[in-house]
């Protein structure tokens, strides 16, 4: 059972220092009783999790130190700590951060060294080696969490719109089926009326007007023409889009191969070009919407890593092939037995060539001697 602490003994001005107390859970209710405490130090304890009430009850905190604990995650409502400016999570076991970090608009300092963060979070957090890195980490995490929230909201709206479109299409499809059934009934009635012969009408003693069915051929033809035009335009549009996509892919492949060859020929120039391309890409991406910017960042990071890996692999392969070629060439030059074999093969080919030429000469000479009748 955890020992009960007298928090008054640990308060100094606006700071509550509960570090190095072997705490396994935070006494949230007791801490909330001191609203003037704006700095809370919980470092060097054995905390594995924070309760949901932690973020709701301690919104007055400005500085929070959770370093050197065993936290695996933060509560999803961690963003309720809207007044937080300084957050230390050094040396925990946190892999990901809640998207409610987007609400921490006042956060100015964040240290997340020695945490097994997922790759994309690790990229945005950075190394946190000095105060400048920690300030940048706070800004980046809040911005990225905001962009992720926007992207999720956009995706939800897109899904709802798709669902609505599907429902509307189903209603239209049902209306079309009903219309087809009505049309089918009309045609059946017209066929029955057409079966009534003039003889039957005369035998009845009077000539009555027989209702006949006139198919709406003009409307049908017009609809058929419209469908043909739409399908033709759609086919041409698909061809244009396909051509553009393949052109872009072809240009990217050629550009990538050119960069690889440039790395083999002149590596400093290759590095300068890559730096300039990276600079242009960053300036262009800065003007894009938040959700698109995040998607582009993931794509470009993955693409650059693949290009880097491919270039390294290509250079290694070419080096191996070049060394193999040099070794083979040196072996051919240095080994006298190989030289003898090469001379024998060349002599054999020359002899065979001479024999074939002699055979052809005899053949054509024989043809010339045959008399023409």
UniProtKB/TrEMBL annotation:
TM ranges: 244-265
Q: Which InterPro entries match?
A: Leu-rich_rpt, Leu-rich_rpt_typical-subtyp, LRR_dom_sf, LRR_domain-containing
Keyword Methyltransferase in annotation = no
* Residues in coiled coil: none
The UniProt keyword set, sorted, is:
Leucine-rich repeat, Membrane, Repeat, Transmembrane, Transmembrane helix
Q: Name one Pfam family in it.
A: LRR_8
Q: Where is the composition biased (Basic and acidic residues)?
A: 168-182
The record's GO CC annotations read: cytoplasm
Region (Disordered) location = 168-192
Q: Know the name of this protein?
A: Leucine-rich repeat-containing protein 59
Q: Which organism is it from?
A: Nezara viridula
Q: What is the lineage of its organism?
A: Eukaryota, Metazoa, Ecdysozoa, Arthropoda, Hexapoda
